[in-house]
Known about the structure:
- The protein has a seven-stranded parallel β-sheet with strand order 3-4-5-6-7-8-9.
- The protein is α/β, with parallel strands linked by helices.
- Helix content is about 25%, strand content about 20%.
- Pyridoxal-5'-phosphate (PLP) binds next to loops.
- The site of pyridoxal-5'-phosphate (PLP) has 12 residues, from loops.
Amino acid sequence: MAESRPPALSSRPEDRTGALLTIDLAALVENWRVLKRKAPGADMGAVVKAGAYGLGLEPVARALQAAGCATFYVAHLDEGVALRQVTGPAPRIVVMHGPNPGTERDFASLRLIPVLSTPAQVKAWGRFATASDVLMESLVQVDTGMNRLGLTAAEFTTLLNDPEGFAGLTPLALMSHLAVAETPSHPLNAAQLERFDGALARFRLKFADAKGSLVNSSGLFLGPAFHFQLARPGAALYGVNPTPATANPMIPVVRLQAKILQVRRVDAAAPVGYGATFQAPDGAKLATVSMGYADGLLRSWGVAGHGYIDELKVPVAGRVSMDLTTFDVSNVPDSALGPGAMIDIIGARQSVDDLARDSGTIGYEILTALGRRYHRRYLPAPATARK
Ligand SMILES: *Cc1c(COP(=O)(O)O)cnc(C)c1O
């Protein structure tokens, strides 16, 4: 195959894209420290699945590792493989979806720790670990009320009662996942905690050293009884509010700015965009930015969405298209709309959670939908500052 070399370009990368995504690694690290202080007895890990929730696996993992994070969680084996190349051999890497048949050898060679969620996974891993001469840890996941992933209560009991049930396993921890942690008053939290406490006590009769792992970001705010020994926060590290009913205790990590491509004034009332769903009034001023649903702006955001130019709120005018979105900037002075002007989509005046609310979704979906066409800028964490 012919090697294709990238062409030599004379422009700056940030000038070739329609938008700028700035990721503040110092804020990320500070958020991790805030969570760590919240549960001083637990190993504070970091969930970096889905490319660190869209913010970039490599820079995020490097910054957290430099800050002292020693346990990372991903969903897929391939994510674990990529992460191991970033971190080197030191940290624990837990692969939450466990081994697909035939992948056990790769888990072992890269020291990736699988989460085992079905009797078949438990059996296959046990068989593989028995045949291998190195000790291979795993996590066993038991369902406590979410009914998504993990051994059912009945499967767990059957395996425990069978002398060969967990044969060959060296479990680092028993794990479960909370379904409603962001709603502290929901009775399912206490019910899941009680079931997990019971399951862990029985598991420890067989594996006395097994740790417990129950909480995600929001779970850390339910009180120390929920923390156990391994914590698995994701979203809160990236600035999403883990306590949606109260003020956000996390620092914002993401800023997203869209470049204005064109400003126009409509002489007489006129429709804007696909479907002609929005009528710009007589004399309205419109600005179109180089960002659309292919970049992660949801089409549903067009109905109630807005951005900011400095402190001025500018509503979306008409539908979000694939690469373009138009805003009504009638209230913005021309001096603020000159070449290089940008509209803040996520920033000091509009959080990830605000954007999510106006899009009919949650901050998690906004972050993981962030596009690939942005120019990405990483503000270094103090400990990782280089150059
Ligand atoms: C994604 C995930 C987490 C992290 O959840 P956040 O709400 O983002 O903190 C923790 N545990 C499991 C099993 C997950 O799938």
